[in-house]
Fold:
Amino acid sequence: MEETLQPKKRMLSGIQPSGDLHLGNYLGAIKNWADRVNEYECYYFMADLHTITVRQEPAELRRRSLSQLAQYIACGLDPEKNVLFLQSHVPAHAQLAWVLDCYTMFGELSRMTQFKDKSAKYKDNINAGLFTYPVLMAADILLYQPDYVPVGEDQKQHVELTRDIAQRFNSIYGDVFKIPEPFIPKTGARIYGLTTPEAKMSKSIPDGCVFLLDSPDDIRRKFKKAVTDSDTERCVRFDKVNKPGVSNLMSIYSTLTGKTFEQIEQEFEGKGYGAFKPAVGDVVIEHLRPIREEAERLMKDKAYLNDVYLKGAQQASYVANKTLRKVYKKVGFYQI
Ligand code: TYM
Structure:
């Protein structure tokens, strides 16, 4: 019997090259992307426009923009199967963001948790870009008409705002934008810092943050120092409220091995934290080893990476410009 070919659903997501990629980015986002490359038509980018809402060292930003591409590929995002690109190479992002700025309310942006956190952290630089950041993110997404946006839990609010903006625009002009769904992994959606199990893992606390390019020794050391819990029980059991440190390590272990929390509890029954922490470290080391080695190899081939960026920018621009033209026409910009 002949099979009817359904067009593939589309996924799109991005990460800011504001720091080196870490285990939170990997488990919350990239792993989820890489596991699905054959199932979806995928667009993944480096959100460099977003990074300058906080001051960046220009040479470092350039280095990370290339290194992040090498790491995406090393994580399994084959540029032949995925469109990989740098946001600033596709001007339509900034162009659509301006239009959407005019369809987003001040009150909506004031409620964004990331804005509240960042404006508290960077008190001397609460710039307009920091405030309108979610609108640029909405433009990033809506330009590509994706079905799903695979992100960690902390970005869910931004995807929800994107849906609201798209619905508002569509209610005025007809069906211009597809309304995307956030796609959040069951485990790994929020990885906490190894030394701060109450705060999400982030580059700003490097001691508790495992970077994808960390050496095995560094990873071992970081897991050794991981904060477990001061309860008297000292057994490996998933309990986010009373055992946040152990539960975080269990989430990491579970996402990488595919084992359930019950299986992990059984595996470490009677063994205590002393055996558990290095075991999680070892799983992370072995999982990241081929990624680090491949990324290091790719980083030596700048011509290849530039080629990927060039091809990615062309493919992305083609799709993005199509949406932008439609939007310009709908709002009444005169076309020649
Ligand atoms: P960013 O760059 O902060 O993070 C990139 C991705 O990594 C996830 N993530 C985490 N997941 C689990 N645990 C953690 N500790 C952790 N830290 C980060 C984030 O949820 C995210 O999926 N605004 C976005 C970037 C962006 C974007 C977009 C994403 C710009 N435009 C369009 C999707 C679609 C951001 O700052 O993510």
